[in-house]
Amino acid sequence: MTDSEFYRSLLRAYIDSANDGIFVLCDEMKFHVANPLLQSWLGVSEDSLVEHGRRRPMTDFIGDAENTQLFSRNFRTVLTGQAVRFECYIHPKGAVARWIEISLSKVNLDAGNMFIGVARDITQKKESEELIWQQTNFDALTGLANRQMFRDRLEQEIKKAHRTGLPLALMVLDLDRFKEVNDTLGHDIGDLLLQEAAHRLSACIREADTVARLGGDEFTVILGELNDIDCVERIAQSILQKLTEPFQLGDQMVYISASIGITFYPEDALRSDELLKCADQAMYAAKQQGRNRRSYYAPSMQEAIQTRMRLANDLRHALNTLADKPFHLVYQPIVELASGAIHKAEALIRWQHPARGLISPAEFIPIAEETHMILDIGDWVFQDAARQLARWRQSHDAAFQISINVSPVQFHNMSDVAHWLDFLRTLDLPGQSLVVEITEGLLLDASVGVREKLQEFHQAGIAVSLDDFGTGYSSLSYLKKFSIDNLKIDQSFVRNLAPNSDDMVLCEAIIAMAHKLGMQVIAEGVETPEQRDLLAAAGCDYAQGYLFARPLRIEAFEDLLDKQAK
Ligand code: C2E
Ligand code: MG
Ligand code: MG
Question: Which residue among 146, 438, 454, 527 is least crowded, i.e. fewest CB within 10 A of its CB?
């Protein structure tokens, strides 16, 4: 064996046993050499590299149009003498698809130009990169884009909208009552609900649009390249409709709805973070307006939110300076219709704002609830009312009763009724002297806690009134389930009371039903003698309203009690 023969066979053995694909191409990318490993990757044998006596080009075997082009482009670069390295996806006939990294360079030999290549299998690296990409960009629970991906897409869509001049819409969507489902039915059901909601959402939008889950029960939809603005409203309505359909989750049937905020680029904002803020504010407005609806962003929302924030700050300040008496209670008599006698009153809070004057509880109670300041406010109301109650029981009426409003947030956060009873005891007041007013929404919660706490009030002798009855979800079945003593018919039914009117029929029905269930009825907002007479004729027990008296300061209320005593 000559030296040259020896080296040739050594080289051959080396090439054949290499862990990389090794190949040599001649002109026009044609195979001169391909080692067995590369042949197996390309699904070919030594023989098939030659067809009708002609060598075949490597591009014949790549099996993926885009990557075939990529290869040709790189080959053209190599022709200029520059070495290249690139990643190429191959999917040859008869072989598995894989990612390879190709290094290719040109050598000048006596016989002409040759191109020496090494191909390395990088499929595993690519797959783990892909997995990491999935994990950083997609939500594991729902498979939707996550916040990160959403940001990228929104940026892209904004650029596109800028280029094309076509607007884009951004929706932020929050599931109503999701927390309740999660808390009462458990996180597994909560997860199922999110998955199914994500599925329904995706079905409502166009192929090119993005749905993302930002976290919790908050989703977002990007609708780009809007040729037809009206489609935004159509999509919003179809989402609302799809989400109110019942969810069958395991053996549970669950009902929810959604609140959607919508904003447009470039109309409302130019930057992605600002757009998201606008959509959030609009979503918040949809929630405020009663949920299960969509709301479009308006600049006034910004103002409203600022006003709220300022008011929240002022409210905190008021709570920190209770000694300055920023709050006071007014008392509205609750009149017994049969006799006209007054032995009860409802305590209503008033806030004297240093700059804005008197602020209505309708304005600041929702803020207090959101910020949980209602807990401190509620305690103050309870104690102040109880002290007044003790005084009036002494001075005017030993059987006097005061009712106070307890907000749902306050109710849920009350650890127990015992510390209230302790306070009443220090004032020598029995539980029977106090009435608690709650709203229908609280009973909808269906949690065991609510029923138990109502039971505690009941056992302590504290009566419970259901306030604003008829305005909420008004499911009659819960009235029986809970310990409720009185129904307060909401003023919206009393306002238009006339003989034979629908409202008259409703009031009569409510009264009859309440009496059957052993409850007493109080009509709210009675402003005219006609309303009073109609209610009395229908058997209503008590009434409250401007006809008898507005909510009164202590002195004025005492005048009323004095007059009654005469
Ligand atoms: P509410 O408990 O249903 O109280 C009745 C509301 O109707 C009171 O409004 C009262 O002033 C008003 N009203 C009484 N009679 C008439 C009438 O003949 N015509 C009309 N148009 N209105 C009448 P106010 O005092 O502004 O309170 C509004 C709501 O704020 C209350 O509704 C209650 O939900 C809440 N609120 C008031 N004080 C407190 C409190 O101390 N704690 C909590 N959590 N909520 C309170
Ligand atoms: Mg009330
Ligand atoms: Mg009411």
Answer: 527
Q: Are 174 and 217 in contact (CB under 8 A)?
A: yes
CATH of the domain at 543: 3.20.20.450
250: left (phi over 0), alpha (psi -120 to 50) or beta: left
- Is the pLDDT confidence value at 112 over 90? no
Cα–ligand 1 centroid distance for 348 (angstroms): 6
Cα 405 to averaged position of ligand 2 atoms, centre (Å): 5
Contact 410, 436 (CB under 8 A): no
Model confidence at 400, in pLDDT bands (50, 70, 90)?
Answer: very high
392 and 418 in a single domain? The answer is yes
Query: What is the identity of the amino acid at 393?
Result: R
Is residue 34 domain-resident? yes
Both 269 and 338 in a single domain? no
How much distance in Å is there from the Cα of 106 to the middle of ligand 2? 89
Q: Which of 148, 272, 169, 146 is nearest to 216 (CA)?
A: 146
| Residue nearest atom 5 in ligand 1 by C-alpha distance | 524
Whose Cα sits closest to atom 28 in ligand 1? 362
Give per-residue pLDDT as tens, 388-398. Answer: 999 999 999 99
Distance 465 CA to ligand 3 centre (A): 10
**100/168 same-domain check:** no
Range of the domain at 71: 3-126
Residues 260/303/165/224 CA torsion (nearest 10 deg)? -20
Rounded distance, CA 309 to CA 528, Å? 39
Cβ < 6 Å from ligand 1: which residues?
A: 332, 348-349, 360-362, 365, 381, 405, 407, 437, 467-468, 491, 524-527, 544-546, 551
Contact residues for 536 (Cβ-Cβ < 8 A; gap 6+): 337, 338, 543
Round to whole Å and give the CA distance between 226 and 169: 8
Residue corresponding to tokens 């690139």: 86
Do 437 and 366 lie in a common domain?
yes
Same-domain pairing of 39 and 108 = yes
Per the prediction, the chain carries an average pLDDT of: 93
pLDDT classification of 97: cutoffs 50, 70, 90? very high
Q: Does one domain contain both 418 and 450?
A: yes
**CA–CA gap between residue 464 and residue 404 (Å, rounded):** 10
Q: Are residues 77 and 220 in the same domain?
A: no
pLDDT at 234: 95
Instruction: Give residue 140's pLDDT band: very low, low, confident or very high (50, 70, 90).
Output: very high
Domain count, the chain: 3
pLDDT higher than threshold 60 for residue 204:
yes
